[in-house]
């Protein structure tokens, strides 16, 4: 009897130890799907396309509603002048237009409408890509469970060390870059980045961002200097054009005065500034011309 008790206690102890060990070895992670999708350029582009279509549909519906409102207003103003048959006909036309508008709303925004269809067509491939990457990360990192923080799963507490959203996002970016890589050097650079840990990759990314920021600042400075040079050049050109126009006008005035003297006309003409043109009298210029 005593032996049986000891045996059962030993079995219970081993079972509890095994369960505790098993629980300690379980790896659980989570992702923030909203954060990942918002960080994927393809998702943002798809969202922009979808929002553009939604805005166009809303404009169509608004135009229909304004047309119906105008028909109702016209009927209210003209009702006293219309026969019952015409009033009934106009009421029927208004109801028909309202039905058309409601059908259009349902076709665009209702269950199974174009909005859901377009969302699936534009966004579903990106979501599928994210799910595939999550599965790859789970297998490679030996995670037993991965939850979506942005879904309906209630998470009262989640340690940040278990958040693998950046790992998934990094894998998505790497996959996109591998697809876009055209040279062997680009592919080698991507493989080197893949070999880095998440912390090392963040440091490299921060350095890349800082380097790019310096390049952008330098380009902005060069563009500003070029604008200043162009502005100075434009001012000088305007001054040159103004001086040239003045010289041409003065030259033409001299020619006109010489021609007037030759023809025996009065110079300067009535209403023009008096006095001989600059650079000598008409007679002097005429003499110079004869020589």
What key attributes describe this structure?
9 helices, disordered C terminus, two-stranded parallel sheet, 291 residues, 2 strands, mainly alpha
Brief write-up:
The chain has 291 residues and is an all-alpha fold. The chain contains nine helices and two strands. It folds into two domains: 163 residues, no CATH class; 96 residues.
Care to describe what's here?
The chain has 9 helices and 2 strands. The chain has 2 domains: 32-194, no CATH class; 196-291. With 291 residues, it is mainly alpha-helical.
Topology overview:
Layout: H1 2-25, E1 28-31, H2 33-38, H3 41-78, H4 84-109, H5 114-140, E2 145-148, H6 165-180, H7 184-194, H8 198-262, H9 282-290
Parallel strand pairs: 1-2
Helix pairs in contact: 3-4, 3-5, 5-6, 6-7, 8-9
The helix/strand series, from N terminus to C terminus, equals HEHHHHEHHHH
Distance between the termini: 149 Å
Helicity level: over 70%
Give the overall average pLDDT. Answer: 76
Total tally of structural domains: 2
Strand order of the largest sheet: 1-2
Outline the low-pLDDT stretches.
Answer: 275-291
Number of helices: 9
Secondary structure class reads mainly alpha
């Amino acid at each position: 009897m005593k032996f049986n008790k000891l045996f059962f206690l030993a079995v219970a102890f081993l079972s509890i130890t095994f369960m505790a060990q098993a629980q300690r070895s379980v790896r659980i992670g989570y992702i923030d799907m909203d954060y990942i999708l918002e960080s994927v350029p393809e998702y943002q582009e798809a969202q922009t396309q979808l929002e553009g279509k939604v805005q166009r549909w809303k404009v169509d519906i608004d135009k229909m509603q304004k047309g119906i409102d105008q028909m109702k207003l016209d009927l209210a103003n003209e009702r006293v002048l219309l026969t019952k048959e015409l009033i009934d006909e106009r009421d029927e036309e208004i109801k028909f237009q309202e039905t058309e508008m409601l059908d259009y709303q349902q076709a665009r925004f209702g269950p199974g409408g174009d909005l859901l269809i377009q969302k699936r067509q534009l966004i579903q491939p990106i979501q599928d890509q994210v799910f595939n990457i999550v599965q790859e990360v789970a297998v490679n990192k030996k995670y037993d469970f991965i939850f979506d923080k942005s879904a309906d799963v209630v998470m009262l507490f989640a340690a940040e060390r278990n958040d693998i959203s950046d790992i998934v996002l990094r894998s998505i970016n790497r996959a996109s870059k591998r697809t876009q890589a055209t040279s062997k050097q680009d592919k080698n650079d991507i493989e080197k980045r893949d070999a880095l840990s998440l912390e090392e990759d963040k440091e490299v990314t921060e350095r890349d961002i800082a380097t790019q920021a310096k390049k952008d600042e330098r380009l902005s400075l060069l563009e500003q200097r070029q604008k200043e040079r162009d502005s100075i050049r434009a001012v000088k050109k305007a001054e040159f054009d103004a001086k040239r126009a003045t010289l041409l006008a003065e030259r033409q005035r001299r020619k006109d005065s010489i021609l007037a003297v030759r023809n025996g006309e009065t110079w300067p003409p009535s209403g023009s500034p008096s006095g001989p043109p600059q650079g000598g009298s008409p007679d002097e210029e005429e003499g110079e011309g004869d020589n």
